[in-house]
Every structure is written in C-alpha cells, then in structure tokens.
Amino acid sequence: MKRSAAASDAATTMQSLDAEFREAVTTAIVGVKHLPGMDRYWRRRRGFFHTGFAEYVDELLTRDTAPTVDIYRLPEVASEQ
C-alpha cells in the first residue's frame, strides 16, 4: 500500500516529536474526538497548526477507536431523593 505525500508528511512530523509527547497528544485527541463540539473546534483551529500535524489529527479523527478515556468522562451525579 503506497502512502500519499500528505500521509508521509504527517508521519514525518509525528516522528520528529518525542515518543512520549506524541503518545500523550494522540491519547488526548482520541479521548475527546467524539465529544460534542470537537468537529467544530477542529474545523476552526486546524489552520493554526503545521500541515503535517493537522493531517495527523485528521487521521486520528477518522479512526475507529474506543469512545473515550476515563479522564474525559462526565461524572455521574447521584440524584437526590
């Protein structure tokens, strides 16, 4: 499978980041990608980032992943009786 130039640029950008930082960024993005407003946020902010990073985030947003990480879950509020 041949990678596009854009995918190659995104991969190069992410490889230039420290592995621990890259993992943290990836986990954070995947953890919030399904939340209300994330699509709108990314559409408005995408242009502020390096093209390779923006393409990497685009790819993360299209991945089929688990819904969220626990840190981003809304706490369940006990109902008062």
Could you give a quick summary of the protein structure above?
The protein is mainly α and 81 residues long. It is built from 4 helices and no strands. Helix 1 crosses helix 4.
Q: With helices defined by DSSP (H or I, 4 residues minimum), what is the helix count?
A: 4
Mean pLDDT: 78
Determine Rg (CA atoms, Å): 16 Å
Q: What is the rounded distance between the termini? A: 59 Å
Q: What's the multimeric state?
A: single chain
Q: Which consecutive residue ranges, at least 5 long each, have pLDDT under 50?
A: none
- Helical percent range? 55-70%
- What's the main sheet like? none
Query: What is the H/E order?
Result: HHHH
Give a written overview of the molecule.
There is one protein chain. This protein has helices at residues 5-15, 19-32, 38-45, 51-62. The longest helix is centred in the first third of the chain and has 14 residues, at 19-32. The protein contains four helices and no strands.
Question: Would you spell out the secondary-structure blueprint of this structure?
Answer:
Blueprint: H1 5-15, H2 19-32, H3 38-45, H4 51-62
Could you list some keywords that capture this structure?
81 residues, mainly alpha, 56% helix, 0% strand
